[in-house]
Design a protein that fits this description.
The complex is a heterodimer. Chain A is an all-alpha fold. Chain A contains 23 helices and two strands. Chain A has one domain. Chain A has a two-stranded antiparallel ribbon with strand order 1-2. Chain A is globular. Chain B is mostly helical. Chain B has helices spanning 7-27, 42-64, 77-97, 99-112, 119-140. Chain B is built from five helices and no strands. In chain B, helix 1 runs antiparallel to helix 2 (42-64) and helix 4 (99-112) runs antiparallel to helix 5. Classes of the chains: A mainly alpha, B mainly alpha. At the A-B interface, helix 8, helix 9, helix 18, helix 19 and helix 20 of A face helix 1, helix 2, helix 3, helix 4 and helix 5 of B.
Chain lengths: 501, 154
Amino acid sequence: MDLIANLGLGFETAFTFHNVLYCFVGVLLGTLVGVLPGIGPTGTVAILLPITFTFEPVTALIMLAGIYYGAQYGGSTSAILINLPGESSSAVTAIDGHQMARQGRAGPALVTAALGSFFAGSVATLLLAVAAPPLTRVALQFGSAEYFSLIVLGLIASIALAHGSIVKALAMIVLGLLLSMVGQDLFSGTPRFTFGFFELYNGINFVSVAVGVFGVAEILRNLENEATRTLLVKKVENLWLTREDFRRIVNPILRATGLGSALGILPGGGHVLASFASYSLEKRLARNPREFGKGAIEGVAGPEAANNAAAQTSFIPLMTLGIPAHPVMALIIGAFIIHGITPGPKVISDEPALFWGVIASMWIGNVLLVILNLPLVGMWVKLLTIPYRMLFPAIVGFACIGTYSIGLNAFDIYAIAVLGLLGYVLVRMDCEPAPLLLGFVLGPLLEEHLRRALIISRGDPMTFIERPISAALLAVAAIAIVLSLLPAIRKKRDEVFVEED
Amino acid sequence: MVAPRSLKNLVSGLIFVGLGLAFGYASLGYQVGTALRMGPGYFPLLLSGLLVLLGVVILIQAIAMEADEAKMERVPWSGLALIMGALVFFGATVRGLGLVPALFVATFMSAFASSRTGLFGALAIAAVLVLICVAIFIWGLGMPLRTFGPWLGF
């Protein structure tokens, strides 16, 4: 069978000493930033991206992917122990997980989170391996018109699921697209919006954008109100589950794996939605729903499994279509491009070792994560005692070195400052930075496909509606935007996200 | 004239309209072309128009919507200035002074940005961070960055 041969190739690639090592580094860093509130996976990937430029492409991607799903694991640890989710998708875990910790059941809560994540991660990775090849075959039929519509859908879907004002999110996307126009025009070579700065001819460095709007803006946001966090549990004991606990978590984990895998494919924060959806599903199905919010183990098992399943399946649109479902994916696309690989359906046939190697590494990474998170949980608890005031200077330092080392260009550092300031002002005005980054990464592709599609159709914009696949994609995008503007849905959506804040 | 009730919408709307107009004005300087033969100005002009439109919608919401729920947090002005200063200082001096002095000053300034870190604390944090960074980036990853630059006579 093809799948087995392909996975064989993948494991052959992933199991080299070098790749296992960097997979380990990736999940270790991911857990670290997941545990520590105040820095998330997007900022970390942005800062570490330049370091990976010297690696082999497959090693770089294995490590970056590891940071992403590792952060999902780590986020649950701080959610359970200090009620401060390190990652937005762990916010739900905090509800019941922290209650369990207060009742002295931190150990079982952590085990449940780790086992649920491990099971869901493994199953979802298998799903990714099975679903990716047929999807790429469809994607290979795509012309420029289809790609244009697909990118529009991706951008729209990313905001339909986000919380906050839809109009502001749309404006952030458009601003991201405009910022990506800076630099030489692809077709004519005309420099655009460079204001005479020679450094801008190649465009604004996307690492600067990511570090600015995610890293620096976040630091400034945290400086507004410097709260100290209190560690409730100094020592975690009893890292095992009773037979009764085990019986209670099996079904929630199975349901959440399915739910998370399906929602993860949706662009834009699918993993956050997945954990909220799983929580409300379990609450509805529970024999004793009143227990939820007071330390129900199902309320830890479900959301944790769901967000990990979604974290894995969100690689499906990235690997098959080259469309990012999450800001981290947008950065991974940047990594592909810098390594000279155009992300999209051709990756699987042109670079099979890379494609299957990254997938295989996810299993290795998931195993490493269980080892890292259970026996070593004491170490993470200690790390939580590092105060933020010591962490953020390190973030600034790493960001400076990382960004500077890409092109030894001081201009990229100034760009961080400017974009960080812009990002901070906009975040203060309740405009989310994720759509801006997605727009920035997808902007050049969007323009290229728009122009190419219109050249092919001799300037007739009807081409986007006359071609069936393109029309269907645009229709879905239009439905998504109309639905999210409907008052009834808006209310529901606010309810889903209200607990996150 | 109705007074705007949502300050957040008012400010963000003005930012979007302003940036949209600025980009739009700049786009007019490039060849716009037709839908068939798009010039470099066509797509940016389209986007600028869209951004202005969205900004106006947000401004309308600022007047029509209910007031902001939460009071805004105070802006950490000194922290903001210190972090921005740290980035600019690093960019301006990393070539001339070299990595170690530039990074030391940058991390010192950022550490000092926290209201809870004193002068000596910030110096200590900066010293430790410089050591960690040199160990990781220069010794570990072998990045081709000068540790001390020509301005210091190296």
